[in-house]
């Protein structure tokens, strides 16, 4: 993966951080996105120490970002690197776990915005860069999308899969952008701990244990069938 430029959202912790480090260990230059700057800096320092490759940090709060913010992010990548080989969406908000009738409307809207609309807006802004060469677009999904009480989080993951399907159909003819979704399963993350505070996490995979799934997707050739898993 040497000379590849890869943008990972939610890279401050959890799966996003592990995917970023795995990409860097494979030789890629990673762009670390999140809103939590101290945690991003810690991931940055570890990558530099372990690989010698200098990543980039791009702090951005998805909840408050505007369309122009996403366009500026894409423009910065274009000016700094000249291309984008992959965009990996790992950022997510759990929101509120409750019956539909008890959902707080504000939290519902914020969760949908972070998990779905922000992913759409960032993808839209980055597509011109991705389409310049063979590239990958990966969304993170979740099996809980049809489960009771999972509220806007579950709805957003179902919608992300629909978005990926649309993009797959739209981009397939050009044969440049491979569109994939990954459900990493139950992983020991802060989001999982919030969803299941009473469960013992010792049996769960660590984020590093599932990062290989993303690396495997990035190793697909762009002349292979575009797939959504």
From TrEMBL:
Keyword Chaperone: no
The organism's place on the tree of life at top rank: Bacteria
Molecular-function GO terms, alphabetical: oxidoreductase activity
Family classification: Belongs to the short-chain dehydrogenases/reductases (SDR) family.
Keywords for the protein's UniProt record, in alphabetical order: Oxidoreductase
Name of the protein described by the UniProt record: Short chain dehydrogenase
Keyword presence, Oxidoreductase: yes
Pfam family, one: adh_short
Coiled coil: none
């Amino acid at each position: 993966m040497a000379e590849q430029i890869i943008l990972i959202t939610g890279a401050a912790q959890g799966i996003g951080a592990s995917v970023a480090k795995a990409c860097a260990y494979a030789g890629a230059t990673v762009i670390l996105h999140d809103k939590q700057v101290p945690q991003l800096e810690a991931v940055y320092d570890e990558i530099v120490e372990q690989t010698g490759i200098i990543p980039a940090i791009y702090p951005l709060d998805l909840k408050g970002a505007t369309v122009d913010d996403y366009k500026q992010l894409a423009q910065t990548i274009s000016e700094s690197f000249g291309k984008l080989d992959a965009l990996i969406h790992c950022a997510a908000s759990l929101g509120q776990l409750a019956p539909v009738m008890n959902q707080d409307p504000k939290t519902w809207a914020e969760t949908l915005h972070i998990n779905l609309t922000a992913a759409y807006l960032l993808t839209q802004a980055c597509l011109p860069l991705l389409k310049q060469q063979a590239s990958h677009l990966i969304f993170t999904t979740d099996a809980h999308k049809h489960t009771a009480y999972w509220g806007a989080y579950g709805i957003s993951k179902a919608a992300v899969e629909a978005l990926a399907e649309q993009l797959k159909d739209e981009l397939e003819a050009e044969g440049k952008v491979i569109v994939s979704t990954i459900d990493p399963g139950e992983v020991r993350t802060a989001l999982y701990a919030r969803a299941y505070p009473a469960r013992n996490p010792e049996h769960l995979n660590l984020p590093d244990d599932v990062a290989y799934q993303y690396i495997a997707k990035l190793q697909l050739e762009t002349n292979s069938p575009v797939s959504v898993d």
